């Protein structure tokens, strides 16, 4: 992941309003998921919850939205579990807003946007990952 393993605990401070988008248009149907989340310092481990009334943009049925939330939580957990051994994860992730597309949104897109949200939060907390150096000829 390229995160500074000397960083200690993730998140080091509240990271609010982290917006993540996963949109891929390679064919029809495509993939689309957009979320806004907060990463709050918490007890050791990963706690995931939706705000009491998360804003939902786009039409989606209740059971379908629940499947999207579950997939999003899976993506969050997968990405955080893959962090280096030097980082202790102690986070509450609060889903604040969801945006869906009636054709292109599906659980797989929400799993991926969960991973993207963690990467965005890591960049906000520790700075962007180091860029690969060019080799000289």
TrEMBL record:
Residues 8-126 form the Translation elongation factor EFG/EF2 domain. Keywords: GTP-binding, Nucleotide-binding. SMART domains: EFG_IV. InterPro entries: Ribosomal_Su5_D2-typ_SF, Ribsml_uS5_D2-typ_fold_subgr, Transl_elong_EFG/EF2_IV. This is Translation elongation factor EFG/EF2 domain-containing protein. It comes from Streptomyces pactum.
């Amino acid at each position: 992941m390229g995160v500074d393993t000397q960083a200690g605990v993730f998140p080091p401070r509240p990271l609010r309003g982290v917006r993540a988008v996963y949109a891929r248009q390679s064919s029809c149907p495509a993939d689309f998921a957009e979320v806004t989340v907060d990463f709050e310092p918490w007890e050791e481990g990963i706690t995931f919850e939706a705000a009491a009334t998360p804003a939902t943009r786009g039409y989606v049925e209740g059971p379908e939205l629940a499947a999207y939330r579950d997939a999003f939580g899976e993506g969050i957990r997968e990405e955080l579990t893959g962090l280096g051994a030097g980082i202790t994860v102690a986070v509450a992730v609060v889903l604040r807003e969801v945006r869906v597309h009636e054709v292109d949104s599906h659980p797989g897109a929400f799993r991926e946007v969960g991973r993207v949200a963690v990467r965005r939060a890591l960049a906000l907390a520790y700075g962007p990952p180091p860029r690969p150096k060019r080799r000289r000829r």
